[in-house]
Amino acid sequence: MAAVDQRKKYFVYLRLILSMAVIASASFYSKISPQTPLISLMFLVFVVISNVIFILLPGAFFKDPRLHYAIFFIDLATVLIGSYLFTTLDVNLILAIFLTILMSAMARSVGSSFLIALASNALYIYITFAFSGRTNMADSPVFFNMPYIFIVALHASFLAEKNSEDIREKSELEKIGKFLSQKAISAREQMISVADFFEDIIQSFKYGIIILDNDGNVRIFNSGCEKMFSVKSSRAESESLVDLDFLGGIKEAIMNFKFNGVEIYEKKVSAIRKEYLVTISSISAKTGSSSGILCVVKEA
Question: What residue spans of the chain are helical by DSSP H?
Fold first, then answer.
């Protein structure tokens, strides 16, 4: 938020300097244009009111780069209109202003704006007096246009610098996003690899392995169980234990274990006309709470 407040102060101070330059040129050089007194006064009122509006705007508004460009174009129009009404607006000034904008965009540094303004002003003065044939510079409106070029340099340099910073920040964010995406993909691949490895271990047991969640739904029904009960895992997995009648006494043993609350339950039971030895225990999470039930089935 401090950076946004600094941006607001920068624009407010810049507009105050611009207003002072406009008022100075109106007061000390033109004494208000006699040809357009009403327009001149309305323009001065606009400059003052626009300053008040930008001062009263909340700092959060200055976070939006679109407002920065809007202020820049308003100030550029103010410079051109002010020079037209109170000093002189000619091709030399317009060229100097656009040259200033071009150099500021290339430099992308507020620190260099003073040197850019000096160079543009020097060129502006040279072109104006070299080709006009004037010898008396004391009463020339050129000197009242010089502050306008400084203001344009400060404005354009600030926008160019902030735009460059935004591009760098966007590039950094894209790099961070790409890095995090690669990390996420890597973590996902590792999880898949671990899950596949765990699946291979479960399926490689010669005993039957049945794993249930806390709601009593079958999560794993390994190949050992498929052979014992001649039932495909797709039929048993994701089904509720109470619906698997083919398990016979194994189902009853699991339900007894769940409701008796013992740590390990071992019992000989019968199912599909065969005797089986089942060993049942809880699967504990890191927090110590139960996350499921493990049942190992062997032929007795």
Answer: 2-24, 37-56, 65-86, 91-107, 113-132, 142-204, 223-229, 233-236, 249-260
Using DSSP, state whether 33 is helix, strand or coil.
Answer: coil
Structure tokens at 250: 């194994």
Tokens of 217: 């739904």
Query: How far is 190 from 167, CA to CA, in rounded Å?
Result: 34
pTM across the whole model = 0.52
Q: Could you state, in chain order, the average pLDDT of each consecutive group of 10 residues for the chain (300 residues)? A: 71 83 75 64 87 83 80 86 82 84 79 82 80 59 81 84 77 75 73 73 81 88 88 88 87 84 81 86 79 86
* Nearest-angstrom CA–CA distance, 113 and 30: 28
- Name 117's Cβ contacts closer than 8 Å, sequence gap at least 6: 100, 149, 150, 152, 153, 154
Domain boundary assignment for the chain: 2-177, 205-299
DSSP assignment of 130-156 equals HHH-----TT-THHHHHHHHHHHHHHH
Task: Residues 205-299: name the CATH superfamily.
Answer: PAS domain (3.30.450.20)
